[in-house]
Each structure stands twice: as C-alpha cells, then as structure tokens.
C-alpha cells in the first residue's frame, strides 16, 4: 500500500499546487 500511496500522494500534491497556483 505504501508503494501505491507514494505516486498517489504525489499526484494529490501536484493537484493542490495547481489549485493554489491558479489562485
């Protein structure tokens, strides 16, 4: 599950960066 969480968390972080970047 850790291996799956690493790429998943990375995608979530990038998504948050995009949202904050737009704002």
Task: Provide a descriptive summary of the structure in words.
It is a single chain. With 23 residues, the protein is mostly helical. 91% of the residues lie in helices and 0% in strands. It has one helix spanning 2-22. The radius of gyration is 10 Å and the shape is rod-shaped. It starts with a helix and ends with a helix. The model has no long low-confidence stretch (mean pLDDT 79).
Sheet having the most strands: none
Span between termini? 33 Å
- SSE string, helices as H and strands as E: H
**What structural class do you assign from the helix and strand content?**
mainly alpha
Q: Which descriptor suits the 3D outline?
A: rod-shaped
- Radius of gyration using CA atoms only: 10 Å
The overall strand count is 0
Mean pLDDT: 79
Strand content: under 5%
> How much helicity do the residues have?
over 70%
> How many individual helices?
1
Q: Catalogue the unreliable spans.
A: none
Fold blueprint:
Layout: H1 2-22
Summarize the structure.
The chain is an all-alpha fold and 23 residues long.
Kindly list the characteristics that best describe this protein.
single chain; 23 residues; mainly alpha; 91% helix; 0% strand; rod-shaped
